[in-house]
């Protein structure tokens, strides 16, 4: 076990590891170790060490936190800033300057609060703090203030940082659910696939014990529980390298929300890949409770469609986030479920069966229904890879992102695996533009300007049209950060206006009309594909070019 690691994201937060620490301090040590390493094996070992020594109640909460389950915020950011200002007597402008420099509220608070004397520190469990958050969420402000301030006064800096993070937002420590599952598999007597299934779904860490969740004898009483999704890697070579095309199934890669449709105990559940229970958001599916046999789980895509033809993703966006779905939305954005795979049939786990067997059974279930709410995703017939390459060229016209390739004898795995499933996406659209605004990033980039706003030409003016923060190397980000610091023109809080000199190629998957953007367009998945050092601002694209793209590819 390593004696000391430096927290790269937060270089001031250093902790020595002692076997005797427990509770929140042990969790703070875990966060420090996970944040300081870029190696999966190191992260895995840190998690194994934690799960082997932490209290069971804390282990359940760590599984929940790193899989997106945490209590709703008990305190908003404004109150936390006010209480910190009262303790430190710092003026608001100084707090703002510190916050803009650090780039993370949780860390700013941890750095500004006065050091706590060691004899005043009280180490409580992680579960104690999280369950207290739940109990005080709707209490008077005075009660919440007392708990937060008292807690700060009993913590060292590391503990304050993770305590604040539990309230303010995600940790961004680069730990996948697959890594969590692999760590748990080393300390419990269950396979990785079973663990991944157990920790998915709609369970409550405040009422679920570690034994209930992961003991060999634990029974699953949650009928809504989905299976972990099988995800594909991008195909980065010619498909001919995959071998005989007869061994592969090709489907369209639809642009929607990956989901699972579950019918168990005569109840219907719809889950997104992000483990959000979305049943009530899509009333079109309610009829399937009476049509589907009991004990089935179907993997597929939630997409808008009319008469079996998928509509653009922008249509689906009009439904996302709405609490109440009215007749107008049901008519203008009708939702269908395009079924890809069968994961469970008559309460039997079908994932270990071959894709061919699963697909045949799926067709037996879905095709007789003849209902617009669900349909089989089309298999693309082809004989050669060159033939499929020509078919792929028409993907964008079908509102598809490309083609999925699946080995016919493959079983349904957990997470992202190489070898059996590949996504062969169409080439993105691109446009050249100039950076006009910059803002510091978060996590390990909280001290660098890495979030940029871009503009195209409109006559003699520049019109902003998109933001992007990914696609470049660490070296390029460092060079651009240096440019921003030397060429800032104006300051608006954390945002800097910069000289319009740096030209970038922006890649994106789609373009749609938007009345929320000054340019009149919105891009799907924009990212920086190249820093065009070979081009000047005079050579960037124009607003007319964007509008022409909208006319050609608009959705």
UniProtKB/TrEMBL annotation:
Q: What is this protein called?
A: DNA ligase (ATP)
Q: Which NCBIfam families match?
A: DNA_lig_bact, PRK09247.1
Keywords carried by this UniProt record: ATP-binding, Cell cycle, Cell division, DNA damage, DNA recombination, DNA repair, DNA replication, Ligase, Magnesium, Metal-binding, Nucleotide-binding
Q: Transferase among the record's keywords?
A: no
Query: EC number(s) in its UniProt entry?
Result: 6.5.1.1
**Which parts of the sequence belong to the ATP-dependent DNA ligase family profile domain?**
328-458
Q: Which domain of life is it from?
A: Bacteria
Q: Has UniProt tagged this entry with the keyword Membrane?
A: no
What GO MF terms are annotated? ATP binding; DNA binding; DNA ligase (ATP) activity; metal ion binding
């Amino acid at each position: 076990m390593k004696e000391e690691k430096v927290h790269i994201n937060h270089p001031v937060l250093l902790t020595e590891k002692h076997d005797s620490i427990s509770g929140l301090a042990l969790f703070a040590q875990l966060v420090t170790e996970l944040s300081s390493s870029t190696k999966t094996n190191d992260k895995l070992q840190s998690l194994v060490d934690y799960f082997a020594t932490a209290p069971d109640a804390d282990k359940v909460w760590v599984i929940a936190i790193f899989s997106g389950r945490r209590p709703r915020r008990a305190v908003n950011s404004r109150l936390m800033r006010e209480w910190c200002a009262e303790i430190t007597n710092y003026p608001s402008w100084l707090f703002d300057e510190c916050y803009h420099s650090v780039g993370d509220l949780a860390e700013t608070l941890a750095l500004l609060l006065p050091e706590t004397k060691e004899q005043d520190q009280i180490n409580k469990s992680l579960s104690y703090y999280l369950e207290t958050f739940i109990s005080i969420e709707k209490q008077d402000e005075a009660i919440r203030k007392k708990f937060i301030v008292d807690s700060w006064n009993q913590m060292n800096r590391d503990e304050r940082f993770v305590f604040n993070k539990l309230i303010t937002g995600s940790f961004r420590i680069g730990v996948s659910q697959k890594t969590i599952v692999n760590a748990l598999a080393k300390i419990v007597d269950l396979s990785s696939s079973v663990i991944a299934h157990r920790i998915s779904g709609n369970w409550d860490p405040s009422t679920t014990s570690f034994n209930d969740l992961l003991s060999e004898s634990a029974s699953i009483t949650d009928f809504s529980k989905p299976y972990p999704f099988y995800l594909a890697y991008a195909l980065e070579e010619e498909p001919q390298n995959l071998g005989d095309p007869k061994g592969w199934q090709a489907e369209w890669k639809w642009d929607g929300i990956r989901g699972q449709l579950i019918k168990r105990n005569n109840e219907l559940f719809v889950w997104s890949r992000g483990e959000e229970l979305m049943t009530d958001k899509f009333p079109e599916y309610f009829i399937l409770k009476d049509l589907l046999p009991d004990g089935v789980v179907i993997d597929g895509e939630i997409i808008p469609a009319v008469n079996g033809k998928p509509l653009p993703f922008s249509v689906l966006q009009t439904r996302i986030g709405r609490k109440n779905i009215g007749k107008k939305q049901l008519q203008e954005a009708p939702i269908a479920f395009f079924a890809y795979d069968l994961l469970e049939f008559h309460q039997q786990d079908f994932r270990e069966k071959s894709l061919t067997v699963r697909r045949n059974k799926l067709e037996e279930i879905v095709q007789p229904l003849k209902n617009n709410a669900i349909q089989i995703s089309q298999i693309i017939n082809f004989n050669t890879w060159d033939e499929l390459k020509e078919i792929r060229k028409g993907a964008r016209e079908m509102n598809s992102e490309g083609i999925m390739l699946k080995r016919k004898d493959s079983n349904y795995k957990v997470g992202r695996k190489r070898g059996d499933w590949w996504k062969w996406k169409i080439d993105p659209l691109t446009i050249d533009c100039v950076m006009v605004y910059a803002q510091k990033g978060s996590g390990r980039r909280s001290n660098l300007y890495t979030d940029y706003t871009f503009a195209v030409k409109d006559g003699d003016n520049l019109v902003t049209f998109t933001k992007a923060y990914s696609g470049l190397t660490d070296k390029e980000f460092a060079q651009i950060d240096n440019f921003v610091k030397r060429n800032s023109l104006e300051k608006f809080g954390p945002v800097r206006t910069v000289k319009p000199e740096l030209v970038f190629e922006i890649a994106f998957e789609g373009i749609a009309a938007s009345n929320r953007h000054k340019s009149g367009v919105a891009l799907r998945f924009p990212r920086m594909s190249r820093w065009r050092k070979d081009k000047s601002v005079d050579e960037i694209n124009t607003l007319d070019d964007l509008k022409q793209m909208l006319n050609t590819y608009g959705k």
